[in-house]
Amino acid sequence: MKTAQLHNIFLEFPEICTDTRKIKEDSIFFALKGDNFNGNKYASAALENGAAYAIIDEKEYVESDRHILVDDVLKALQELASFHRNHCRAKVIGLTGSNGKTTTKELINAVLSKKYRTIATKGNLNNHIGVPLTLLSIKEDTEIAIVEMGANHQKEIEFLCSLAQPDFGYITNFGKAHIEGFGSEEGVIKGKSELYEFLIKNDKHIFMNADDPIQLQKLGGYIKKYGFSTNQKEFYKIAFSGANPFVKVIVEDNSIESQLVGSYNFTNCAAAILMGKYFNVPLEKIKEAIEGYSPSNNRSQIITRNGRQIILDAYNANPTSMKAALENFSQMEGNHKIAFLGDMFELGSITPTEHQNIADLATTLKFDEVVLVGENFNRVETNLKKYSSFDELKNFLNNNQLHSESLILIKGSRGMALERILDTI
Q1: Would you list which residues are annotated within the binding site for ATP?
Q2: Mean pLDDT across the stretch 271-298?
């Protein structure tokens, strides 16, 4: 079936499902494949549970005219998404970077939705499947779509740009993330910059942090760039005015106080403010959006448990974000500071060095207590407490009472699931 024909069906049944456990009435089921599953086997079950059509790529599973056979289900999903993106009138903002993508995306959406009909990537569905699903959520009346793009190897952002065709773009930063796939920090910069390359090649608009020397160097001669800066006159001025614990900024003599912990969230707020100004959202509405946004999903959250104040930042971690979190934690006021740090993943050959660096940094910052968790941290040379697994940490917590008025930082990669500490303390 041609993509245009499939798109006509999609316009009649605009709900997409890829999981038979979450089938919605009159949806289209795409029978994707993975290392351990074959969606074709569940196509009939999807139809029985209410799907209007099932898109499959193995002929033996065709049982009715509601089974639509294509050469490759994933490719069909991606091509449909690209076709739909070009069918709709919405402007697309592409967003990538090593740290802060999802928070920045949520802030941008909060600001722009004050004036426009927007859609944005749900959660962190930002890969070769998530981006198509986001594009397919664009409605006829959507004015702006904010599309988050993740990557862990070269050419991935380039491919996602070919699907999303962004009109605008922003890179949060370049850090030590996914080194295993990118090969080096230079590889990270090259991979993330594929967004810039697409936008420049197609004469599109770029938002930038003009205080980031890498961005400034790469975009110095490009005309269609719009930046924020704390001190450069040629860019929109947004001043940082503290983060103890919540980030505060000054814009046009107006103070804006977010609900985000950590000075590292300043640039995330600034990017959303810059885009709000570009799209003519009134400043009072921008302030309302930034101050009203409350983080969730273990990202820069402040939680109180039994008199203890906890900074829960356990959604993900890499050396850059870990260093920023520790330095910010060191500047916060607290009677008894405890940092729980979990392993950082996907670092490849630099894994031992970077875990040692973080342990050394944590030692110099002189917190009251630092607890390292995971096999990688367990191998470092340090006098800090360290446990090879969460179960070992749990045993320690069950047998040792933490200070009753502690200020606690919890930071680690998603696979460590350190938010489980909350159930113990």
Answers
A1: 97-103
A2: 95
